Amino acid sequence: MSSLVPYSTPELLFTFRDGLHRMNTTVSDRTAENCTIPSSVDQQMYPAAYSLFFIVSFPANLLSLFAAWQLMKKGNNIAVYLVFLSISDLLYTITLPVWIEQALRRDVHGGLCSTVNLIMYNSFYVGSGLLCCISVDRYLAVVYPLHFHWVREVCTAVALSTAVWILEVVAHILLLFHMGALRASLCLYEQHIPIKTGAAHVFLVRIIVGFLIPVVIMSFCFQQIMHSLQQSVSILEEERRRVCLLLLLLLLTYIASFLPYQTVMLLRATLEPGSCEWAQLLRGAYLVTSAMTTLNSTLDPIIYCLINTSARTEIKIFVEKGRKVFMREDEERPNSSIEIRAIC
């Protein structure tokens, strides 16, 4: 009789348990694949927020780029990093109208979405790399003023800034291609919701390399600069205050802009893969904190132009030249009208 039974009782239990596990996995996968998350957060918030950011950020970054360019031509190495930073922020600012169109559920060409995705992530991490360069440069200049002169040369700054740009662009082309974002038809949303395990691993790498490490570097440099300035008697109090204020505001702006976003991305990377429920819970926070990151591109040029005396001087010279041109044109217009009347 036993020969007619193909499995013993333990084997039957194992087979049943294995089949039940595979059935649950299949149902879970199908649920994840069919996960739809209706959200109007972006549609309600993005058009107004991004329009405001664009109105403020575009002229601010243009002014910052102009001032930094003028100072770079005079041999200011910090201005080199700010030129590259302003270009990165300007490129991101120019893409904001595309985000607005996408939030309003209007059609955006897939190729444009790929470019926008690359510019956005490139702006995030190029900015952190360049801010690290600025912090390390000031750290070496203040703490070791008699050493590392070659690091503080314009040529070195150009080489480092170019290297940061190339590294970030190549890295994100590879990462976005791996995630499928370069073939995306939607700019604002991931193609796979909830995210897959591979994308979660990419998020974790970005959090560590693109946020935590830069924050540690900038915080260390700031602390060492503060300590050195307090002990130095050769640096004027006003100069000391200005250096500390600039670095502190840049650091705080960076943390305030990206900490909420990176926190949400950490939660998504650890909780969301394969879970439609977590994807639904975290979706609104992801959309809001994504918009908050634009604050960094908006506030950085304002901080630089307000605190840096040389930048303010260059902007004042530019404004004064523009005012003289307009005044000259206004003075010539009445003379032209008088000549026309005399001819008539």
Automatic annotation (TrEMBL):
Segments forming domain G-protein coupled receptors family 1 profile: 60-304
Main location: membrane
Database matches in PROSITE patterns: G_PROTEIN_RECEP_F1_1, G_PROTEIN_RECEP_F1_2
Protein's UniProt keywords contain Transmembrane helix: yes
InterPro entries for this protein: GPCR_Rhodpsn (IPR000276), GPCR_Rhodpsn_7TM (IPR017452)
Keywords per UniProt: Cell membrane, Disulfide bond, G-protein coupled receptor, Glycoprotein, Membrane, Receptor, Transducer, Transmembrane, Transmembrane helix
Protein family: Belongs to the G-protein coupled receptor 1 family.
Cellular compartments annotated: Cell membrane
Membrane topology, from the record: Multi-pass membrane protein
GO CC terms: plasma membrane
Name the UniProt record assigns to this protein: G-protein coupled receptor 4
Organism: Oryzias melastigma
Molecular function per GO: G protein-coupled receptor activity
Annotated TM spans: 48-71, 78-100, 120-142, 154-179, 199-222, 243-264, 284-307
